[in-house]
Amino acid sequence: MTLVQQISWCQNYSIEDILSAPYNTNLVGSEHGDKIAWVSEVKGERHIFVAQSPQFIPEELYSTEKDDGQILSNLQFDHGGNLLYFVKGSSPNRQGEVANPASLVDYPSQILYSIDLKSKQLDDLGNHSAYVISPDDQYLLLPKGKSLMRMNVATEVVEPLIKMRGSFSKPAYSPDSSSIVFSSQRGDHSFVGLYKIGDERIQWLSPSVDKDLFPQWSPDGNKVAFIRMPGDRRGDLDDITSGSPFSIMVHDINENKADVIWTSPADDGGFAQYYPSEPFRWAGSGRILFYSEHEGWMKIYAINPDGTGIVPVVEGSCEVEHSHLNKEGTYLVFSANCRDINDRDLFLRDLRSGTTRVLTETSTVETDPVLLSGTSVVYRTSGYNFMPY
Hints:
mainly beta; 5% helix; 4-stranded antiparallel beta sheet
């Protein structure tokens, strides 16, 4: 092809052609690994698709039907795989306003919806964004500022559970649904709270002047792990150029005692703890998984609850980004550039044997992997010359 031909071809490829390419996000899988859902944006219109095993043929569940500028996010299947939840609308700004780029007269708000996967019925569940599904699928936890509410899924009745100072973050049900753990944000510090449903008081787990974040239940429900970072000093401003040291704490509920099982060797906290969607997990295999940059690269590390046996899930001078843990907590799939620094490939970590293998070896970019049943994986892939369908 001559230079003139190349220029002519480029001129025939319009802006409309470029914008017509779909952009897919929010890929999620059901707990049993037999369903997937995602958001596809085409020419400004946003669509939610679902696909089921064994063929995984895409089926449209919802569409904005126009370019209204309202994002679709926070997709999640209930545990039984019967409902799909999602949020429409952007997060509010400091004035409490969501984005309205289309200048709609009927000003939009952030709404939580559910879709019944059999009847395809769409339900408006109200002005909520964050939500946690109870293990039995009967309730939704709805944190909003100083209040933690609970919605009965069948009746859609909302009742208050807790009111407190500060704001709720990362609430999580215990494995038996009897208790809830959460982080209470107090500005320059934060606490991890434990609430046994029906009790009159909150139990604070090893409260201090530090920032206690991302609480995680142990598989047996007897312990809670969380990340502890230093609290802010008076007059401190956010520093986006350096990190913060952090520790991993494990609190024994029966003994009401917390132990520090690991401390970062330098200022390695911050980006690795806030960039990934799930920076801290307690796997069903018994291993605690966390993101850290203490070796110069953002990676996931596995450690025993007593602080022994810390290892990276992959070796090399490279970054680990998106990851997903299967229901049993035995396999971790993640995207990283450890095979080729210029690409993203998928890797699978067996948390029982401690072995890692490469799943993809391509010149394209593979991200956002989701483990299905067995060790099957669904993921996003992209490249510079992908053509719109």
